[in-house]
Write a structure and sequence with these properties.
Length: about 200
């Protein structure tokens, strides 16, 4: 959830409306817009959603549910900026809005200090994509074109070794996420990069 630079396009939000118990992607986005004013944080939510949704399709999982989870994972960051308030205190808000316990648990599990073990495919995927999506975004911004299309896996790996670059991104979490998913690092980097490239216009990259 780090490496959130100023972004070029401000995400637009519809008016807030009622929320159903079977939350849709659109309803989740309205919650994000209600609680998140930062353009970069909204874009981070979209970037994580992009990677997580791509994996949902890859795994044959419920894409809508995975999108909702990814969009909401940092929704309370601005109102609960101090750890461990985020994401713990945000859980009550999500419960009031009708977000399922499964999604609430997945969001809690993306923070290592909550003590919630990541056991489901959704939980492990969210965790594995969170920091990496922010890191790929940071890699895009240092390109002369500021375009994700000019980012390569080799470049991402090189930047990961540079501790001075995007120092707020937890490299250990990226490595742990890969290990928990049981995927190859290069394959994971490539998968998320391609997903973000495919949605570059909406992500402002």
């Amino acid at each position: 959830m780090e490496a959130r630079s100023q972004l070029r396009h401000r995400p637009t939000c519809a008016d807030i409306s009622d929320y159903s118990t079977n939350m849709t992607r659109e309803e989740a986005w309205k919650i994000v817009c209600e609680f998140v004013q930062s353009e970069s944080l909204r874009k981070h939510a979209l970037a994580v959603e992009t990677c997580v949704a791509a994996y949902a399709r890859e795994f044959g999982e419920d894409e809508e549910k995975w999108r909702v989870t990814a969009l909401l994972h940092d929704f309370d960051w601005e109102i609960h900026p101090n750890l461990p308030d985020h994401p713990v205190k945000g859980q009550a808000i999500l419960a009031e809005r009708g977000v399922s316990e499964e999604i609430q648990r997945a969001i809690l599990s993306h923070a290592t200090f909550t003590g919630i073990d990541r056991v489901t495919k959704l939980e492990r995927t969210l965790f594995a994509c969170d920091e990496l999506a922010g890191f790929i975004t940071a890699c895009s911004y240092v390109k002369p074109t500021r375009s994700v299309h000019d980012v390569e896996v080799a470049g991402i790996k090189k930047k990961l070794k540079d501790k001075a670059f995007a120092r707020g991104v937890n490299r250990e979490d990226i490595a742990l996420g890969v290990a928990e998913m049981g995927v190859d690092l290069d394959a994971h980097l490539s998968f998320c990069l391609r997903a973000m490239q495919a949605r570059s216009a909406e992500l402002g990259l």
